[in-house]
């Protein structure tokens, strides 16, 4: 993606642009991309000036509703025949245990349906055949272990084996999603802590969700100071984070300020606080996504979100890593959260209009493609 951007960028700048190409879809898409990069993200961040402080305004004081659709158009890569498999994203979900097998599937399949080329799941031996049975699209590695299947004297050797297995793959991934359906087994979580340390050493972005947040809330050093860590807490998980980090209770009156302090206190991480509006902060600013989603609160929607954020974060990072790009000053983790939140909410809204009260996560996953297409049509 990067080299394509450079060559096309220089091509775009040359005076004698061949008009013949101007009609080509790739060129048109690229022209749109350049325009949206220029105006899109800057212009997309509208600042709300609150003149009257009613209770609701107080709640989102200083939070900035972003034009999420412009962000999506700016970071979604154009189709390009010169790309090979894997270049549009290679994601790995670390989760799935005896108790939960749905969550890792939801996160991993959502990454593919948003547009990643490859999606892996690292789970326990018990969970693997179950997740494999859901879909041949996913590459499922049965390598994690829970305490009940490991003898005390074997724990050391097993955990180093688990780590060696994951290390074989980890460098290939553009982003990890740690936590969907992970469960809370102490031995399993110790192995996952080591995996996180290795990922961090290799500068691989990590989206932490579900029981991954349970782990991180009790071991904040795993993420503090790591700018490529994204936490996606739901109502319960956010409450526990605030209690642990700020030694206080969730304050709805000033949600924006509290989120800013939480992200600052942990240090450098990006937090996506899920709720009626999704609030996003990297400790510098706070953005909000309030696109109407659905009133249905079925389990699994947060798993879709974590997989989607992973893909958009990887795409945004390809752009922000490019000094010529207008996005180089933007935090790719924040852009990824904005895009992931907006697409999930649009898909949930589409699914709810079809299925109403019976809407389940699978219905929302089936709407992901249309949600992306509505915002950013494939060339
Ligand atoms: N179909 C599936 O397989 C699904 C699996 N899921 C997985 O289920 C697991 C739990 O997710 P939930 O959204 O239910 O988790 P929550 O944290 O929302 O709640 C789980 C329950 O455990 C309690 N709890 C959680 N952390 C605690 C702590 N540190 N101390 C005391 N009590 C605590 C909560 O109060 C709640 O009663 C996650 O790994 C998640 O990914 C969910 O994503 C839903 C779908
Ligand atoms: N009260 C709400 N109103 C509108 N949308 C909401 C509301 N709460 C959450 N959402 C949306 O639903 C998405 C999932 O949030 P939720 O709190 O269900 O995550 P979760 O509990 O982690 O889900 P999961 O069951 O997958 O673990 C959020 O990204 C948000 O956009
Ligand atoms: Mg969750």
Describe this structure in words.
- It is a single chain.
- This protein is α/β, with parallel strands linked by helices and 379 residues long.
- Helix content is 51%, strand content 11%.
- The protein is built from 16 helices and 10 strands.
- Strands 1-10-9-8-7-6-5-2-3-4 form a 10-stranded mixed sheet, with helices on both faces.
- Helix 7 links the parallel strand 3 and strand 4.
- The longest helix has 24 residues.
- It is globular and about 55 Å long.
- It starts with a helix and ends with a helix.
- The N terminus is likely disordered.
- The site of magnesium ion has 4 residues, from loops.
- Adenosine-5'-triphosphate binds next to helix 13 and helix 14.
- This is ATP-dependent (S)-NAD(P)H-hydrate dehydratase.
- Its cofactor is Mg(2+).
- Keywords: ATP-binding, Lyase, NAD, NADP, Nucleotide-binding, Phosphoprotein.
Secondary structure layout:
Layout: H1 2-13, H2 19-22, H3 25-44, H4 55-59, E1 64-65, H5 68-75, E2 90-94, H6 102-114, E3 118-124, H7 127-134, E4 139-144, H8 155-170, E5 175-178, H9 186-201, E6 206-208, H10 211-218, E7 229-231, H11 235-246, H12 255-266, E8 270-273, E9 278-281, E10 286-289, H13 301-320, H14 332-355, H15 361-366, H16 368-375
Parallel strand pairs: 1-10, 2-3, 2-5, 3-4, 5-6, 6-7, 7-8
Antiparallel strand pairs: 8-9, 9-10
Helix pairs in contact: 3-5, 5-14, 6-13, 8-9, 10-11, 11-12, 13-14, 14-16
The structure holds ligand NAX, adenosine-5'-triphosphate and magnesium ion (MG).
